[in-house]
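User: Structure please.
Assistant: Input sequence and predicted structure:
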Amino acid sequence: MSKTQRMFMPDAKEWEKVAENLVKTRRWLYNLSESDRIDGQNQRKIGNVIYLLMIALEEVDKLARYDGEGWL
């Protein structure tokens, strides 16, 4: 990785903030999907978004392993 690329790569603490926001959103969506006010079709759509957030969290975790100084 070049020096220029390293300058733009967020450090692990910044990735942690991103992950925390994804987790909060995922938790909120899960609670919403469990609500009696949501119909089945929308529950499935919310379930799909929850699944995509899990994939995003896995990728953020991979990115957070590199903090700009080297592998953690």
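Residues 65 and 72 are 6 Å apart (CA to CA).
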